[in-house]
Design goal:
alpha/beta, Rossmann fold, 8-stranded mixed β-sheet, 2 domains, 13 helices, 5-stranded parallel β-sheet
Length: about 350
Amino acid sequence: MEISKSEYFKRQTTLSEIGVNGQDLLQKAKVLIIGCGGLGGPVAIYLATSGVGTLHLVDFDNVSVSNLHRQVFFKSDDIQHSKVAVLASEIQKRTPFTKVNVTDEAVDKSSILSLISRYDIVVDGTDNLQIKYLINDACVIAKKPLVYGSLYKFDGYVATFNVLDNKGNYTCNLRDAFPKIATDIPNCEAAGTMNPIVGFIAMLQVNEVIKLITKAGSLLVNQLLIYNALENTQFKMKLKKNDSINIENIFENSIYSESYCKNQDSNLLISSSELNKILANPEIEIVSVIDNLKTNIPFKVHQKIPHKEFDLAKFTPNFNKQYIIVCNKGISSYDITLKLKQKYSNLSVLSLFEGINNY
């Protein structure tokens, strides 16, 4: 069935603040969404059905069971499928007026500036604090507006950063609110989060993007909106530009990755150089616990078990072998190594220090 564009968007173009001209602006807009879970999923669907002409979805992860309660555009049949592929398919089922591109890998410092240069607006739907600062800093350097969203238990945070105002200046960014990356705030997987707050913050992000494109209403610039779901309260924290922060210098000198836990037992770690010396040993069993099975690992791996699926009860070790557990950053691998050592005290098992990212 052929769908009429004018009929599809009739309720929206009826609004005088949007109208046909605003709808045309939406159709011409190109929006990049980084992170396609609880925030990025609804943002993508609602922006597409609002008429945004081009969306680019970025996420390295596959759908897991623990996602389903809050990432509502995924179904049980989607488990272990690429999030961006599933989400792109869901968009195409709903509207023929949006072109969707996907990147099924994580953003990093080497790729992000090239990626965001092709889009009008960037939406942050990630739950990793280091990556949030990477996205923020790249947007400042590339002079791109960023619609920010984040969650912590029952609190949600929304802001629109780095918008060119009518005086030719750029509004506040994440580092004006929080200059340095906190090291003691866990992501949603570790801290937990409740279903409604995720959808609420995503909708506020959608609202900001539409207002940015159509120039309707007032944006959440130079302020951070904080909403608490338990008390149903919200307030806006005013932000002030800090011109002493040199983001270009920060970007150049930062690696934007989580540092390994300083409490790791050195007796359970193996360095990259030590691993290189024993890679050819047939008694070595290397086990990857990286959740993205497509990740390129620069040496032979004997078993690939996603960290989320690693079941200690089902893992039967060979005590004649030495196990090396590897992951991207050396955090998940250490977690598994410690659990294995606690259960099998005589097992020879080590974690690759700082992971394959620093191999």
